[in-house]
Amino acid sequence: MTIQPLSSDKLYRASELNGLPEDCKSTKNLTPLDEIVGQERAQKAVEFAMSIKEKGYNIYAIGRNGLGKRTMVLRYLNRHDPNGNGNALYDWCYVANFEEARIPKVLKLPAGSGHAFKKDIEKLMTRLVKALPLAFDNEMYYSRSEKLKNQLTEKQESALLTLTQEAKDHSVSLSVTTTGEYQLVALNGEEPHTEETFAQLTEEEQVGFEDTINELERKLRNIVRQLTELEEEFSEKIQKLNEEVALDVVSHFIKALMKEYKPLPEVIAYLKAMQADILENLDIFLEESEEQVALAYAALDKKMPRRYQVNVLVNQDDSKFPIVVEESPNYHSIFGYVENATYKGTVFTDFSLIRPGSLHRANGGVLLMDAVKVLERPYVWDGLKRALRSRKLSVSSLEKEVTLSGTISLDPEPIPLHVKLILFGDYQTYQLLQHYDPEFSELFRVTADFEDEMNRTDESEAQYAKFISSIVNDNKMLHCDRKAIGRIIEYSSRQADDQNKLSLHSADIANLLRESNYVAKSSNATMIRANHVELALSNQEMRVSRLKDHVMQTFTNGTTLIDTDGEAVGQVNALSVISTSDYQFGSPNRITATTSYGDGGVFDIERSVDLGGRIHSKGVMILSAYLASVFGRNKRIPLTTHLTFEQSYGGVDGDSASMAELCAIVSAFSQTPLRQDVAITGSMNQFGAAQPIGGVNEKIEGFFDVCGIKGRAPNQGVIIPQSNVHNLMLRKDIVEAVEKGDFKIWAIRHVTEAIEILMGQAAGQAGLDGTYPVDSILGQAQLKLNALR
């Protein structure tokens, strides 16, 4: 036989760390990386998106969970100031709109000055609350208001005096009742007429009195109108006096603020509007209406009128670029909301109860969120698209969005929005959004595609060692010695299922380091060594391998039938992988093929009972095509073959058993026995070429473990496709067994090589007439088929 098993050095690629200096003994000697290793493509995408300020250049970061997407982006944002081109940051405040209370106004202030402005207004209010009552509680104000009152009284008395005298001249009395009404009564001498005395008057005298009183009433009405006008005039003069007095006080205190905030026209306009409003609402400060004052002062924090508070929604640090990570992206936490307050059983709301969301805090910077969490919450995705499209941020209640009711609520002015949104998600979510949401590609024009693995070279191993150092330093773990670094790199290569690749699943590496650190500290070690890493890996496997132990137990007690020595016709050991959510392991399966006289078809029992998947069925069809090309070029194959996985009661999918199935069929055709101490895995094409499969390490280890259970024999081994050799990162015990010659692994390029290994004879090559040599396996099969024909 010409096919030689693989040497032990092909089964595992140890990490020599040639890229590190020889004097580097541990991670203590390595500079930690401040970036995620191997993600240059994604990093360039982030850099590109951050440098473009136009609308729509938001980022969707694609990759499996645990690749360090968020960590990489945050490290990049914290390291490179994305605001290096000097984008101005602002504080945003809501203040009362004195013309329309339902629409609070937005004030834009330079970053860091929002709280200062709020304190300035609070100081102003504190002074006014004390100063305004004092301005109206002094002799000067009293004398001026008394003078106006006296003038009113004189004019009122003067107007009434003339009428009183005229009434007296006509024997009529003008008096004021206790209720404040004017009364005209006919006089009988000095006393008012009674009903009896008035009845005794002549009719002419009675009519005379009535005419006189009617005329006097008409004049009285005119005078009352004049009195009302005089009172209104007096009120206006008092109001003007109050405003003059208040204006002196208010303008004196507000003058300094006007000067300080002169460069900000919006603030100046607000201060002027506030001054005018204070003059119109002096009763709030003079405490003339208790209920009004109580509600005005029903603030939840400060003792000052609510309408003059400043609600600082966002207070930015002027030197720090805003980077916000939203862990729970519901509608209110992103877009903000309006609270309600209760005072004496009355529910009310105003601008001071507007609360910010994460978009407010990230305005001018970056907001990072998980795509799936965003899509899970109702109305959030539509709200985000609306905000990104309009570049405006409106605080609208969710109730208003989802109901048709016209509940009275605030409608605050929108805030201009300049934010970069970064969503983290997997490929499936990305494809769904691309397919079902036409706006997605317009709003998220940059895709940061995170790699699962990187090439394994001396340089990349050195980079990976620095990456390990950064995890150690960030988490304040014990340092790893050189051998421990090498073992972790080898583990990473095993995770990538490739000797020439390293896994970039940083969460796995971080978890392994944490567990190795725990093991090292438990043994009072001062450094993480290779044996600590091995023990941590062993502990990891022990925690998740319950199913594997259960499956292996079935081989121990003979429940699952398998032979690991001897020979059998139409029976071969194939290899499969069983997966749980966090663990996978290999297990051998017996495949059998039986033949009967028929039309040359291959009857796949798994498919017939709906236990075989589509890929498995495709594999059976491909091997059927290869069989037809080998044995049925000129005449139909006169046998029907029945093919099955023995003791398989669950679904079977994948085409990695194609070569094993073909070997079982050829054995059944030729009646040549197959070795049972050798298992085989591998797919094939229509020409018989071996194709690579997944899980090669687990499959080899699974058969090796079963051989240990059933009893070791000298020539046991596994056949794999040649194209899978670079995937080998096998366990240490298997590498040692191969090195000693106790176990063998053959790598083949064509299914005929597997036939030769399993049947111990040459497979044979077809001559020009399509026949195979009689002493070959395929020749013997052909002879038997010809006899049946």
Automatic annotation (TrEMBL):
<dbReference type="InterPro" id="IPR046844">
    <property type="entry name" value="Lon-like_helical"/>
</dbReference>
<dbReference type="Pfam" id="PF20436">
    <property type="entry name" value="LonB_AAA-LID"/>
</dbReference>
<dbReference type="InterPro" id="IPR027065">
    <property type="entry name" value="Lon_Prtase"/>
</dbReference>
<feature type="active site">
    <location>
        <position position="656"/>
    </location>
</feature>
<feature type="domain" description="Lon proteolytic">
    <location>
        <begin position="566"/>
        <end position="761"/>
    </location>
</feature>
<protein>
    <recommendedName>
        <fullName>endopeptidase La</fullName>
        <ecNumber>3.4.21.53</ecNumber>
    </recommendedName>
</protein>
<dbReference type="InterPro" id="IPR027417">
    <property type="entry name" value="P-loop_NTPase"/>
</dbReference>
<dbReference type="Pfam" id="PF20437">
    <property type="entry name" value="LonC_helical"/>
</dbReference>
<dbReference type="Pfam" id="PF13654">
    <property type="entry name" value="AAA_32"/>
</dbReference>
<dbReference type="InterPro" id="IPR020568">
    <property type="entry name" value="Ribosomal_Su5_D2-typ_SF"/>
</dbReference>
<keyword id="KW-0645">Protease</keyword>
<keyword id="KW-0378">Hydrolase</keyword>
<comment type="similarity">
    <text>Belongs to the peptidase S16 family.</text>
</comment>
<dbReference type="InterPro" id="IPR008269">
    <property type="entry name" value="Lon_proteolytic"/>
</dbReference>
<keyword id="KW-0175">Coiled coil</keyword>
<keyword id="KW-0720">Serine protease</keyword>
<feature type="coiled-coil region">
    <location>
        <begin position="199"/>
        <end position="244"/>
    </location>
</feature>
<dbReference type="InterPro" id="IPR014721">
    <property type="entry name" value="Ribsml_uS5_D2-typ_fold_subgr"/>
</dbReference>
<dbReference type="Pfam" id="PF05362">
    <property type="entry name" value="Lon_C"/>
</dbReference>
<dbReference type="InterPro" id="IPR041699">
    <property type="entry name" value="AAA_32"/>
</dbReference>
<dbReference type="InterPro" id="IPR046843">
    <property type="entry name" value="LonB_AAA-LID"/>
</dbReference>
<feature type="active site">
    <location>
        <position position="699"/>
    </location>
</feature>
